[in-house]
Predict the structure.
Amino acid sequence: PTTVTPDPDLDLIEAFRRGRETAFDDLVRRHEARIWRLCGRILSDDDAALDAAQESFVKAWKALPRFKGDARFSTWLTRIAINQCRNELRRRRTVKHTQPLSLDAPSRDGESSAAASVAALGHDPYEAARGREVATALATALAEIDDEAREVILLRDAEDLGYEEIAEILEVPIGTVRSRLHRARGEVRRRLGPVLAEPT
């Protein structure tokens, strides 16, 4: 039989419900770096990412008394953050505010951004320049694919979440996650093809 790991945030949630409001501060500290990083990867704007992350926690705080625990708190919170980012992206399109997506996501927890990781592939000047070129092309490719594809590829390949959790976050079947991811990776590979081709 499959053993279900208990939600590590359950004690803090129960404490908050019993009236200890500082328990929510502990939840924020536990999850803020991850949520801010994810918002940064989706929105490609540090200030907008910070706003979206803060608004996500405000919404979570207001809704926590109604949280049923059907999903882990981290899954539920990630879903709130993604919906907040979707709202921001819709707002940008309405006001025709466009900005290329960057992989230089905020990294309060000390992790390097995806772009920096790619760019640091070698110390050779050519390799460093090529790394930056690939990182820029990858950021552009992610900016050009649709929101659904971008969300699933970031959750799987950047955040390293499992298919089941991604399905819970996006509220779609696992099969949909797999097909979106397959399509998203194919689109990104196709767009990166010219950059990744070895020079002759």
Residues 174-196 form the longest helix (23 residues). Residues 78 and 106 are 16 Å apart (CA to CA).
